[in-house]
Amino acid sequence: MIPGRHGDNRGWFSEVYRADRLAQAGIANLFVQDNQSFSAPAGTLRGLHFQTPPAAQAKLVRVLAGAILDVAVDIRRSSPTFGKYVAVRLDAEGGEQLFVPHGFAHGFCTLEPNTMVAYKVDAYYSPAHDRAIAWNDPEIGISWPVGEAEASLSAKDRAAPRLADAPELF
């Protein structure tokens, strides 16, 4: 989804969130929290994160500065696309947004230094339901723009289990 931009010699204006337009696209989630992250180095990798029910989160992701490779992995064991992923480039210049539904793990890798990402979620953060799966799980096979040696990761993300080792989540 790419919100329209109305430009002139001063720059541009965009309605980045309109519940009615999202509903027309089949997204009727009520977003309750806005999150924002800043990553100084290119190659910062955050993910693959999700929350389990009853605190599962859907996300609407966009980039405020810089660029990312944004990834969503289907972790619903009963789904025909279980373990499959989508990966898209989102950047501040293009204004693209990605909707990540319930039952998907989400992560991204910064492609430029000083990247800022914003996302809306439809459930509040719940530490008791916060989970992660390995960003580099070979069975998922995500083609990240960085290797293990170059990726800037949190300790949580380094220790995340493979999807096959995670219990049934959705």
TrEMBL record:
What cellular-component terms does GO give this entry?
A: cytosol
Q: Which reaction does this chain catalyze? A: dTDP-4-dehydro-6-deoxy-alpha-D-glucose = dTDP-4-dehydro-beta-L-rhamnose
> Which principal EC class is assigned to this enzyme?
isomerase
- State one Pfam family annotation: dTDP_sugar_isom
**Which residues bear the site annotation Participates in a stacking interaction with the thymidine ring of dTDP-4-oxo-6-deoxyglucose?**
125
EC code: 5.1.3.13
Q: Which GO terms describe its molecular function?
A: dTDP-4-dehydrorhamnose 3,5-epimerase activity
Q: Which UniProt keywords apply?
A: Isomerase
The answer on whether this UniProt entry bears the keyword Isomerase reads yes
What is annotated as the active site? Answer: 49 (proton acceptor), 119 (proton donor)
One GO-annotated biological process of the protein: dTDP-rhamnose biosynthetic process
Which Gene3D superfamilies did the record assign? Answer: Jelly Rolls (2.60.120.10)
Recorded metabolic or biological pathway in which this protein acts: Carbohydrate biosynthesis; dTDP-L-rhamnose biosynthesis
Functional note: Catalyzes the epimerization of the C3' and C5'positions of dTDP-6-deoxy-D-xylo-4-hexulose, forming dTDP-6-deoxy-L-lyxo-4-hexulose.
Which family does the record assign? Belongs to the dTDP-4-dehydrorhamnose 3,5-epimerase family.
Subunit relationships: Homodimer.
Q: What name has this protein been given in UniProt?
A: dTDP-4-dehydrorhamnose 3,5-epimerase
Q: Which organism is it from?
A: Methylobacterium gnaphalii
